[in-house]
Design goal:
The structure is a single chain. The chain is an alpha/beta fold. Helices cover about 35% and strands about 25% of the residues. The chain is built from eleven helices and 15 strands. A seven-stranded mixed β-sheet has the order 1-11-10-4-9-8-7, with helices on both faces. Strands 3-2-5-6 form a four-stranded antiparallel β-sheet, covered by helices on one side. A four-stranded antiparallel β-sheet has the order 13-14-12-15, covered by helices on one side. α6 links the parallel β8 and β9. α3 packs across α4 and α3 packs parallel to α5. The longest helix has 16 residues. It is elongated, with a radius of gyration of 23 Å.
């Protein structure tokens, strides 16, 4: 199991937050799911701990199956933990679930909108469920429809909405009761680039202007890099690294080298030959791609190419870049992000 890294460096704190004020605190969460007779249970969470400060966007980054959605389910009272403890908005999740539900908004992976209801009806229903009067519910619906640019489509059935419009409606419903903590579970999955950019802008606004505490789960590296004040990399149910995106990347010295060879059979040969070079560290091999780190890319790349040429390995491409979150994931989880699904 890789060592967990906890960065002591953080980005500039959002206005009004202090390190003492926590919106979410989870300690040693464990969750196991039964998979049927004769099959081994699946451990979704294996002692996961995290803290989210007030007014920040905290990203849970990991591939599908890493435990991100299970974490959200436990913190939002939708599923009990087998063990561990969690406090959200000052309320113990296990002891006071109703108080937690009144303080949070939740946008799940799949849209919760009923296809035979209009956008306006969807928001009004959510408002009524939260105890608002009919007048208050209609007023709040109007505010949110206007805010998310859905006024013109307010009285259309949601089955006619595009994916981007549905996600906007989901967020509007999640904000009906003016929560202090917002859970966004894979909020941009399936969105086109324009809708995704609009969602990013809205999430930025929620944290920086409205001072909501946002727990965002994502399997998009660029999304976590762009949005998160701090993030935790989740692998097989536990956190392997935590800190600001910049701090995590700066921990990795030197450059990232990626060599892609002509075929998969040559990949293993290439990885074996390159592992003998002192200038390369953290060498991994997946399919046609060999990844490594080096302190001197300018001097190393010619040596890499010459070594592979001598081995009779045809190189399709060789690239050098500064450390990315993919490199961070590889370093701490021990495998590349795109190959991490289980």
């Amino acid at each position: 199991m890789p060592n967990t890294f906890r960065s002591t460096t953080t980005r500039t704190a959002p206005a009004g937050h202090t390190t003492e004020r926590l919106a979410i605190e989870a300690t040693d969460l464990v969750k196991t799911y039964a998979t049927g007779r004769g099959k081994s249970p699946v451990q979704a969470l294996d002692g996961l701990s995290l803290t989210v400060r007030q007014g920040e966007v905290f990203g849970l980054l990991g591939p599908n199956g890493a435990g991100k959605s299970t974490t959200v389910k436990i913190l939002s009272t939708l599923a009990p933990a087998d063990s561990g403890a969690a406090v959200v908005a000052g309320h113990d999740v296990a002891r006071h679930p109703d108080a937690v539900r009144r303080a949070i908004g939740l946008i799940s992976q799949k849209s919760s909108s009923a296809p035979m209801m209009t956008g306006r009806e969807s928001i009004i229903l959510a408002a009524r469920v939260h105890g608002m009067s009919r007048h208050e519910a209609r007023t709040r619906a109007g505010e949110l429809l206007d805010r998310f640019g859905l006024t013109d489509a307010a009285d259309r059935l949601t089955k006619t909405y595009s994916g981007g419009m549905l996600r906007k409606l989901d967020v509007a419903v999640g904000l009906v009761a003016r929560p202090t903590v917002l859970f966004l579970d894979e909020p941009t999955t399936g969105l086109d680039p324009e809708a995704r950019a609009q969602m990013w802008e809205e999430i930025d606004h929620l944290a920086s202007v409205e001072q909501l505490s946002v727990l965002l789960t994502t399997h998009y590296l660029d999304e976590a890099d762009h949005l998160a004040d701090r993030l935790a990399i989740v692998d097989h149910g536990h956190i392997v690294a935590e800190g600001t995106p910049d701090a995590l990347k700066s921990e990795l010295r030197g450059d990232s080298v990626v060599v892609e060879v002509a075929d998969q059979a040559a990949g293993a040969i290439a990885a074996q030959r390159l592992s003998s070079l002192d200038a390369l560290d953290d060498i991994t091999h997946e399919g046609r791609a060999i990844r490594a780190r080096t302190h001197s890319a300018a001097g190393t790349i010619p040596v890499v190419l010459a070594t592979l040429e001598q081995a009779g390995v045809e190189v399709a491409s060789a690239t050098v870049s500064r450390p990315s979150l993919d490199d961070v994931y590889l370093h701490f989880a021990g495998h590349a992000f795109e190959g991490a699904d289980r």
